[in-house]
Amino acid sequence: MGILKCTVLFPVLFLLVPSLGAGAQEVNQLNVGDTVPGRFWHQPVKMVLTAEKDNQSVSFGQYRGKLIILDFWATWCAPCVAAFPKMDSLRTRFKDQLAILPVTSQPSRTVAAFFGNMEKATSREGFSIVDDTSLRSFFPYRSLPHYVWIDGNGVVRAITGGEQVTVERISSLLHNDIPPSDIKKDVRKVYNYNSSLHEQIESESLLKHSTFSKYIEGYGSRHSIDKKQAKITLLNSTIAWLYRIAYSEFNPELLNPSRFVLEVKDSIKVTSGGLKGRLLKEWCADNAYCYELTWPGQEASRLFEQMRADLNSFFPYACNIENRPIRCLVLTKGSGKDRVATKGGKPELKNDAYSLFMRNLLWKNFTSLLNMYYLQKSKMPLIDETGINGYVDLDIKARMADPGALAVALSKYGLHLKEEVRELPVIVLRNKGTL
User: Fold this and answer.
1) Which member of 65, 201, 256, 423 has the greatest number of CB atoms within 10 A?
2) What does the DSSP assignment read for 26-43?
3) Quick one: residue 205, left, alpha or beta (phi over 0 = left, psi -120 to 50 = alpha)?
4) 230 — alpha (psi -120 to 50), left (phi > 0) or beta?
5) What end-to-end distance do the CA atoms of the chain give, in Å?
6) Which pLDDT tens digits describe the chain residue by residue (435 residues)?
7) What Rg value do the Cα atoms of the chain yield, rounded?
């Protein structure tokens, strides 16, 4: 059965589409829920039919009141061509209520030749709007097939792929006024090669991104480890600090300065060496860096692993964690009654350079304060060998950064702080190619 028996409203062969030249109305993209403009109904279109010889004008006004489905296709689109029999069947089933109109931007000669070959191979006749520019301006697309559903009142009810064009979906719209809900999104964007990809994508599309930059004046030296957002940020940092963060994985014990060993030839590029004021600012301008890694959905361990890979590919250094004997401040507990166990009460912490009051807080809060704050400038790392794990009460009056004064204050709790040698893991930074 030929297609013309179902499409007697298409008697035109090779009718020209007026171009929207200078002075023509601007065509704005239409979306679901929009109403087509008046000129949509009256603007003539160019139609190719396999066997029709007469020339007459066609406009969409003759289908007003029906459900119109614009079937955007191309001769090279295999899924589009494969859907032709399905579209014929739908036209037959909904003959008085539906018009499915193929639309292509290809020229009439190409489409006419294609339909001629199709008829010889399958005995199926074809028809299509050709040389289209105006309809695609209303309904731009990036992939084919592309279907636009317009109801009898000229309202765009859906924009879908071919899988939505079914008897059930068409009946639902015609009889229950329920359009397809799976909208085909064809977003057209122009990539700006003068900008970065990171700046041009939506945050929810980001899979992974890492950035290095030079020192940026005004930021200060800051760091942020956001495990929830899977993000590491370090601003205006020394190379030494970058490696310490990456290899310690922000573990307070391993992050201690005494657990970082420099064995590089150019240490002046790796650490500022205690410079201050103008000299430090000048040094930072040449030797400090900003780094940021974002990797949504990843565990912190993967973040630090990726950070290490970034550093090792960018800088001329090799870094490892090695066990070495080093002099430490070892904290131990004497025998006898546990004098630090909490007596309960509301958790509380008050501390300054000369005192520390802790009530009903975990012991590790105390050792972390010593490692990360009070003893951070000590040349010896703090090693906790007390075996204490629970909640404690402490009330210390001493110069907290002075190991000697701290040892005296801790003795009243049966705790001992003294210098001893331990073999500990340390972060060692070298020039690449050296052992």
Assistant:
1) 256
2) PPPP--TT-B--HHHHH-
3) alpha
4) left
5) 83
6) 333 333 323 333 333 333 333 333 445 789 999 999 999 998 888 888 875 554 355 889 999 999 999 999 999 999 999 999 999 999 999 989 999 999 999 998 899 899 999 999 999 989 999 999 889 999 998 889 999 999 999 999 999 999 999 999 999 999 999 999 888 877 667 778 888 887 888 777 888 999 999 999 999 899 999 988 899 999 999 999 999 999 999 888 888 888 999 999 999 999 998 898 899 999 999 999 999 999 998 988 899 999 999 999 999 999 999 999 999 999 999 987 889 999 999 999 999 999 999 999 999 999 989 988 898 878 888 999 999 999 999 999 999 999 999 999 999 999 999 999 999 999 999 999 876
7) 37
Phi, psi at residue 231, to the nearest 5°? -145, 135
374: nearest Cα among 406, 348, 347: 406
Give the position of tokens 């592309």.
146
Report the C-alpha gap between 232 and 385 in whole angstroms. 32
**Residue closest to 215 by CA, chosen among 267, 159, 125, 284:** 284
CA 151 to CA 319: how far, in whole Å?
67
Q: Which contacts of 118-126 are long-range, i.e. CB under 8 A and separated by 24 or more positions?
A: 118/50, 118/81, 119/50, 119/51, 123/2, 124/2, 124/3, 124/84, 124/85, 124/88, 125/2, 125/3, 125/4, 125/49, 125/50, 125/51, 126/3, 126/48, 126/49, 126/50, 126/84, 126/102
Check: CB of residue 377 under 8 Å from CB of residue 401: yes
The β-bridge partners of 113 are none
Say which residue the tokens 């190379």 belong to.
Answer: 239
Other beta carbons within 10 angstroms of residue 191's beta carbon come to 8
Q: CA-to-CA distance for 127 and 45, rounded, in angstroms?
A: 13
What does DSSP assign to residue 59? Answer: -
Hey, what are 10's tokens?
């298409």
Residues for the chain: how many in total? Answer: 435
Q: pTM here?
A: 0.59
Residue from 301, 313, 293 nearest 206 by CA: 293
Domain boundaries, the chain: 3-176, 197-315, 326-427
Q: Which residue has the tokens 């909490």?
A: 342
Nearest CA to 374 out of 359, 353, 396 is that of 353
d(CA 197, CA 191): 8
CA distance 422 to 41: 87
